[in-house]
Design a protein that fits this description.
The protein is an alpha+beta fold. α2 runs antiparallel to α4. The chain has a three-stranded antiparallel sheet, with no helix packed on it. The model has no long low-confidence stretch (mean pLDDT 86). It has two domains: 72 residues, no CATH class; 67 residues, no CATH class. It is built from four helices and five strands. The radius of gyration is 17 Å and the shape is globular.
């Protein structure tokens, strides 16, 4: 995410390892991970802020869920905002947008929640160019 003070790349991480402790089935419970206390820290200017795990700010608008600051990985694309959380998210977007054949996804799948403008074949080339811009941002952090 973008540091609220210096606008450079900052990190948001769980405060304790308890947030990623697995249960008896070897799974980290989703609510435990989602609502674990977080810390925002910027190695560039030293900014630090803590989030206590009370309420998630907002999902899916190009902002960090916990602190509400803009994500580091975002670029304007096709009159919209293309954003990603990390390299795995970029890879997923690239695989989906670049696929010559897409299966129909229903329900709660990530692909079913992508915006229509991103799924349109007419936007494919532009979206793939923008995904490459996200990759360059990832390298520059």
């Amino acid at each position: 995410m973008r540091c609220p003070r210096c606008e450079k790349c900052a990190r948001v991480l769980p405060v304790s390892s308890a947030a990623t402790e697995k249960n008896k089935q070897g799974i980290v419970p989703y609510a435990q991970l989602l609502f674990a206390a977080r810390m925002l820290s910027c190695q560039h200017c030293g900014y630090v802020k803590e989030w206590e795990g009370k309420k998630v700010a907002q999902f899916g608008d190009g902002r960090d869920w916990y602190f509400g600051a803009p994500l580091w990985l975002q670029v304007p694309c096709c009159g919209e905002l293309l954003w990603a959380f990390n390299d795995r998210h970029i890879e997923f977007l690239e695989d989906f947008v670049g696929a010559s054949f897409r299966e129909t996804h229903f329900g709660a799948s990530l692909a079913s929640r992508l915006p229509k403008w991103m799924k349109l074949g007419t936007n494919r080339a532009e979206v793939l160019k923008c995904i490459e811009k996200l990759r360059l941002l990832l390298v520059s952090e």
